[in-house]
Each structure stands twice: as C-alpha cells, then as structure tokens.
Amino acid sequence: MGNVNRKEILDILHGYNQDDVTIATLGSHTSLHILNGAKEEGFKTAVVCEKGREVPYQRFKVADEFIMVDKFSDIVNDEVQEQLRDMNSVVVPHGSFVAYAGLDRIENDFNVPMFGNRDILRWESERDLERKLMIKSGIRIPNKYKEESEIDRTVMVKFPGARGGRGYFVASSPDEYQEKIDSMLKRNWIGDEDVDKAHIEEYVSGCNYCVHFFYSALKDEVEVMGMDSRYESNIDGLVRIPAKDQLDMGMDPSYVITGNHPVVMRESLLPQVFDIGDNLVEAAKDLVPPGMNGPFCLQSLVNDNLEVIVFEMSARIDGGTNTFMHTSAYSYLLFGEFMSMGRRISREIKTGIGENNLDAIIT
Ligand code: AMP
Predict the structure, then answer these.
(1) Of these four, 2, 22, 199, 282, which has the most CB atoms within 10 Å of its CB?
(2) Whose CA is nearest to atom 11 of ligand 1?
(3) Distance between Cα 72 and ligand 1 center (Å)
(4) pTM above 0.90?
C-alpha cells in the first residue's frame, strides 16, 4: 500500500460539490468512451491531453475541458492534480494512465479521487502477484514451468516489461527453447538479464475471448459487459500464409496487439464465465481488500474440450472495451439500453452519489 492516504482522499471528496462532479481521464486507451459515457450519464468531462493528441477529443466532442500537458506522465504533476481537484474530478484509471503515470506515483503522489481500488493496480501489473490472485481464485490458468528442462510439451515463453508480445515464442522441447533464446540474444532482442526472467507456460491451443466484467461494489454483483478477441501482428497475418511458405520465410511470430474484434461465446460456456468472474471477485476481496471495484478483464483461450483457460488479467478497464463504445450484445441484455463500459462506470458513480455512498467506490 502506498502513501496516498485514504482519509485525505475522502476529505478531498467530501469537499467536492457532489452535484457538480467532473469525470476525468488521460487522453488515450479507452478515454473516448469513458468520457462519452460520462456525458451520457450527465457528468461534465475533462481530458488530460498530451499536446498534439487533442484532435480525437475535439472531433468526437467528448471533453468539456482540456488540461493540456507536454507529456502524458505530467498527469501526476502538482499543478495538474490541483486543476483536477478544482473541477471536482473523479479520475478513471486505464492502461495508459497506469503506464504513463507509473504505479509508484499513483500509489504515493496522486492525491486526486480515483474510481476503483488503487491498490489492485499493482496486482495486475506484476506477473507473480497476478498469478497469486488467479491461483487463489481457483480458476483454470496455464501451467507454469519452473525451468526449461521441464518442457515436455508445447510452451509459450514470455518476457517481462512493455514488449507487448514482441519476442514471445513457442517451443516444444528444452533444445528448441535454447536454440530460440540463443537466436534472440544474438539479435539483441533480449539481454542476458531477461533470460532469467523468462516466463514459461503451457501453450494453450484455442480461441481467444477477453471477457469484460464489471463488479458493482454497490450492488455486490458481477456483470458480464462484453467480450472481444485480439487482432495481433504479426501472428494474425502470418496465419494467412500457407504453412509450407511460412517455413521457407523463416519468420518469427510476434503478438503485438493492433486492434480488437467484438465477439460472443457459445451460450453453453457462459456458466463457466460467470463462475470465473465470481471466483476472482471473491479472491480479490481476501487478497487486496476491499477487492475488485468496477471493470476488470480476463483474457482467456477456449480449447476444444470447451475449457476456459485464463492467461492474463486486468483489474481496470481493458482496451478491448473499445469494441463496445455503444453497446455489446451482453450489456444490452443486462441493461435494455446501450451501455458501454465507460457509461457503466459513470452509472456506478451516479448511483454512489445518489445513495450518498460515493466513498465506497472511490480510492
Ligand atoms: P499476453 O502478453 O500475455 O497478453 O499475450 C499476448 C498474446 O499471446 C495473447 O493475446 C495470445 O495470442 C498469446 N498467448 C498468451 N499466452 C498464451 C498461452 N498460454 N497459450 C497460447 N497463446 C498465448
């Protein structure tokens, strides 16, 4: 837990005019529908925008106020924080906010009320903590190999940091593992220090479903809001080349996300999905109190035994929610009106204000 004092945050929140709250976020990632959803729920909106990146927010008309900064990471500067507090802002954290502001600054220096559980952001960012939470919840995850000598089937090898799927590789034996590591070292794709940190896990052959949940702490209910699948370069292009030509080309696969497709699952898989979401919420209550609060995403692969295997988790809004800036099949089922994840967040904040219980969902 960082130095941002919960009592101080609540004091700031109690000093706000709660009839005049602004929903604010960093202009990147999922900010378009976070801000649009806030407007739909009747809030004022503000975007903290890097100079030169303002066009989408102007042209899509989602922001009432622009706080212009030289670089994204300036969102944690004192003057920007002050401007945000002056507008009675509740900040919605997303992946780019966490990446640019940095976990340390969010935990220690960012004295602006945020939606969600501030402490859980570290749990989704660090692979060991993430794994601990997933193990505690008892959900099916890929088996992890302690060292390469244990490789007895096809594995996926991942490296830490912001490489975003570049340099991940697949290997089926200790020899193949070593060959690929040597080749990556030779090309300077990784350094010696990375080799020790290689994460080796069972390769799951299946179809990708990233499930976007919303946990309402106010209602104590887990909602399935939508699903997407990833569109990754170069792997999704590589599979369009006939296998024999792939071999001739000697190309290395990478898994860099470039976009997302909306997707729905066969209906018989949905009970598993709800179980997984419920179990994760329960585990988070124990490990990172008060637990989940708002959006979270489980990235899964569904194999031909129809098992949903979760290989990654986000404990904040995930980029794949951009596939339903208007609505998804599932959020429409639940709400009977168009409901994006951004709008759902603002709906929760509005409910918190209405029930005089905003403290419960602000961190
Ligand atoms: P990640 O960086 O963990 O989100 O993974 C990036 C991509 O690698 C995923 O979207 C999948 O396409 C693929 N991937 C990750 N883990 C596995 C796994 N255990 N088995 C098969 N493919 C995986």
Answers:
(1) 22
(2) 255
(3) 28
(4) yes
